[in-house]
Write a structure and sequence with these properties.
Length: 170
């Protein structure tokens, strides 16, 4: 990306920042001869190291992402040879486990995480508020009052409790 998104294009700005952060971490992995490893794999790897094999749904909950996002990431990790999948208690459930290859890569993955944590502290020192602190404050504010309710407060759309029932039939 070459340009900087407009201040009012907040979603675009957030994606731009995330792309810059993830892109730089991905470049570090490529420099470490792990080009197929993605930054989005690390939270799942950490949970699987700590908790052992888990159903995708439990893994998603522990990481804080949707089932769909976890499933997509697990599929990428499987293609990279980092996890295996086996059937769970029912036909829909799949249990995710780290492979021997993932365990061999753990020292490099952990070294990258430590280096990235140090680099983020360096970045935080340049910011008015540490990035994670600000993001947690945003999450808390949105949990108290979702953006949709804030938009409704402008008069553009009715609040949920005031919204009319959808029209059914002729």
């Amino acid at each position: 990306m070459t340009g900087t998104p407009d201040r009012e294009a907040l979603g675009t700005l957030l994606r731009h920042v995330l792309d810059l952060l993830d892109g730089d971490v991905a470049t570090v992995y490529a420099d470490l001869d792990l080009a197929e490893y993605r930054p989005r794999f690390s939270p799942l790897v950490r949970v699987l190291v700590a908790d052992g094999p888990l159903p995708i749904r439990d893994l998603a909950t522990r990481v804080g992402v949707t089932h769909s996002a976890a499933s997509q990431t697990v599929a990428q990790m499987s293609r990279a040879g980092l996890v295996t999948l086996r059937p769970g208690a029912d036909a829909r459930q799949r249990i995710v486990a780290l492979t021997d290859r993932a365990y061999v890569l753990l020292p490099v993955i952990e070294a990258e995480r430590a280096a990235t944590t140090t680099a983020m502290r360096d970045l935080d020192a340049e910011l008015p508020v540490p990035l994670a602190d600000e993001l947690y404050a945003v999450l808390a504010a949105l949990r108290r009052r979702p953006l949709r309710d804030r938009i409704a407060g402008t008069g553009l759309a009715p609040r949920r409790e005031d919204a009319p029932a959808p029209h059914r039939g002729p």
